[in-house]
Structures are given as C-alpha cells and as structure tokens.
Amino acid sequence: MSNPSEQYVRDVIVPIAEVELQHDELAYKRLCGTGFVIGRSKYLLTAAHVLENVEFAVGMKTKEGNWFSIEIEIAAQHPSEDIVICAIKDDQFFESWLRLDGNHYHQACEYHIFGYPDDVLYEADQRGIDGRILQRPDLIYTKGYIRRRFSSKLPGLRGQSFFELSDPAGAGCSGAPLVMGFDTPWRVAGIYVGERTTEQAGRALRERGYALRIEAVTDWLRAIDPILLE
Question: Least buried of 34, 132, 217, 221, by fewest C-beta within 10 Å?
Fold first, then answer.
C-alpha cells in the first residue's frame, strides 16, 4: 500500500463519540477521544479511559462530507495499562495501513500524532444557535520527540509503561496512535494517554504528553489475537 495522503488519514484514525438514541436515530452527545484501526484485524484501539463510564460509543467516519457512525464494542481491556481493544462490526470493516510496532524506542526518537483535540470544538463556528457544541472534530497533527521512557506510576495517569513526550497533543487526542514514521506501513509504537502539568518552585508550569508503550503490552495483545501484531 502506498503512503496515504493526509486527506485519507481520517479514514483510519477516527474520533470516538458518545451518542444516544433519540427518535430511533443516533444523536451526538460529546467527543470522547480518538481511536485507530489496525491492519486487517477488524479491531479499533484506543485508550481505556476514553470509553470509561460511556454507555454507547461509536467511531465517526466521513464520506462525501458527512459523518456516519462505526459500530464498536469492547472486546478486551488491559487489566492495568490504559488500552482497550474494540471489535468493529463486520460489515463496517475497512483495512488500515497502520501496524503495531513492539520494538524498543528510546529518547530522542521522533514521533507523529494525528488526533481530534476537543479544544477546536470551542471555536465560534463550532456551536449551534442553542450554544451546543457541534459534532465536527478536526483532525490535528502534532510532531515531537520522546523525552524519556520509563516504567513507574504517575499521578493522574493509568498504568506504568510510558513514553514522556516533548509536546502534548491535547484532550480529545487520548487514544491516538504514536506513529514512528511514514514508511508503509505506518508503525505505531504507542497510544497517547494524556497530559500532566508539573510545577516546581520558581519555574514556569510545564505540560508534558504521555503515551503507553506498545512493547509493554505485546504479550497481552498476542494472547487476545495474534493478528493484532501482524
């Protein structure tokens, strides 16, 4: 598969929304985060906290300028790390050029993130006349480098297998893939899980982004379905 142009990235990296049934139709409630489809596996991956306390979530895909829903259901959730595997309804499956990468990546490695930060939803033209936030998330690109890799708990984050990133991607990007290069296939070495703000006496506040390391959960992924790592 040749390298996709950016206009097709949103075909495999999608916003996840909470919806509700109104008059026999799905109605958008809020943006939950970002998810991505892996290879030919019929699975969508995201951060586990994205779907926490959500009664009914769907992926959102565009076609001819309109959004339509991708039905998903949780297939497996890691017992301690911030990752969940969702099965895609068979007749809605589409193959992805993203592949999970369980290799060891270290400090200074460059990464790329595509996700749907919810701050863009607060722009003026994203609200209806009743003030309600509309369901038009924009795909945003972030680039940076891995500051460090470590295995320990951090306040406010789930798990203990992290990349600390040079730049935060923003709320709404939780669940986005950490892409290590644009050679085909795209290699996903992490899943973005959130930000932390650190404060030290006499120094300015600093916000860092964090991602779960895929290499820390490869055995779990393989036990769920070996095709996830093909």
Answer: 132
